[in-house]
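The aim of this short unit is practical: by the end, you should be able to scan a pair of folded records and say something sensible about each. We start with the first protein, listed as its amino acid sequence and then its structure tokens.
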Amino acid sequence: MTVPEPTALNIRLPYVQVEEAIAAMIAPMQPGEQLPTEPVLAKRLGVSRATLREALRTFVERGILVRRQGVGTFVASRIPTLEAGLEVLESLDHMAQRLGLSTEVTHLESVERWATPTELAGLGLPETQAAEVLVVDRVITVKGEPVADLHDVVPLSYLRQADLDDTFNGSVLDLLLGRSHLMLSTSRTEIIAEEADAHNAARLNVRRGAALLKFTAQLYTYDEKIVDYSVSYFVPGHYKFHVMRRVQGQ
């Protein structure tokens, strides 16, 4: 495909305009198509290569572009955004199924051990109490692209390592929902933006320092027991969350 020459871009552009120009350029391109080389693209946009790289990096982190070392920059596969309302707790697998997508589990690790002080606090247990827990770590991918890094801590009285059989889809929530006697009620979730550390960056294929959505959650039963303490990181470009809020009366 021949990339059209941008118009009115013969002067040095502000950073936002550079992103807009790149977005307009790649919009008609197909997944797998290669962008012009950095020197060529920087010249067309009238910006420095440093500015161009920073702009391109945002598209890579959002999953729109893919960089292959020594080869070039390509348009990524266009995975539909996984969207959910924050009012309802739903597993990633169910979110993907609504869009006709399938998820895969990678980097799966599970272990039964004693809870750490942080985990005890997350489970609402006193620090002096010894509690055995199942810890489940995994990365969820859609069409081969990492979209979430999940970490769950569940007391062994609710879930054991043997429950993670070959049918495990990566959702601890779905396993707990299958235990009707638990009577799950609500999830208290704190949502913040956090920079990716070396561990998350490697697992989610983003640069260190990239912005991630961090969800720290406690899953409660109707009798107010915490059955799951989780810390999850989502790649922003693949997720859209919304919330309905009631207008406070005068």
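Turning to the second protein, read its sequence before its tokens, just as you did above.
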Amino acid sequence: MYEVLMYDGGVHKVEELFDLIEDIGGFVLQKTQVQVMIIITMAIPAEDRPLVERKTAELGGKIIEVPLAGTEIAVIGPTLGRHHMPHPICDIAEHLRRYGAITIVMGLARGRGRKTCQISAEEKAIIEEYDAAIFMLGNFKECVTHEKIDLYKDIQIPVVTVIGPEVDSLPHCEALVCGVGRKVERMRRSEEIAKLEEIADRVKEVIDVRRMEIEEDPLFVHPSEIKDILDEMDAVQECLRPAPVVLHVDGLRVKIPYKEHLKEMEELEVYGRKLKDIAVISDCRLGDSTIIKIRTKAEVEGEIKI
């Protein structure tokens, strides 16, 4: 199992860290250098973490935990109007980024009103392109428990529900956080920051469960290995959008048009096989992007008929 960590230190002898990452079969996901300081996000085998920590200490740097690195998470409210607390939604999205996640904020087209809130099939399909979803449902207990839980009951990815009233449990979700409802200001107080930490902890738990499920039937390659290959494509190098290649738990989002570059991506070679043979490549439903879902070793090697 790969673990994603961040190195923060100087550039002096940092090539030794790069060599170690390569020797243990890890990958450099991102590096940002500012003068003599550098930040490196890496994916390494979990069992080799002590080696990286020792090398980091030798170089005078530090290791920062980024447990949600390599994930893309949707934070969803019934609407993004003031009626449905845009401030907590944005605060949650920002807080998760501190743990390494890529986040997006989404409002539903028909979310306003207890009896009229709806989610369309298209919206569900967009949400299911992410690794997990956080639904913020408001302050009113009866409204949340009787009506709005239907918004996510058919979502096929892990769901964390965030609500204002205190309830013991809700159906159809993997985790529940109470005590965060409608607000017209940012979450700055110590008790509010504690709630943001609680939400981050619940998200980490559901992502860890998903990763353990994948380990039971491992992917043919880790997403970061495909990212290294995609980074060599001219279209990716010329892409001006932030983070042209985004890692998912079981694949990647590539921010280049699907129709224009499908053939090129299909023919990319990964450990002697073409990408089209080890992954499902599909058009993203939101923007000119491509979704890549990696098949498992069993599927690729023929143990399971596709």
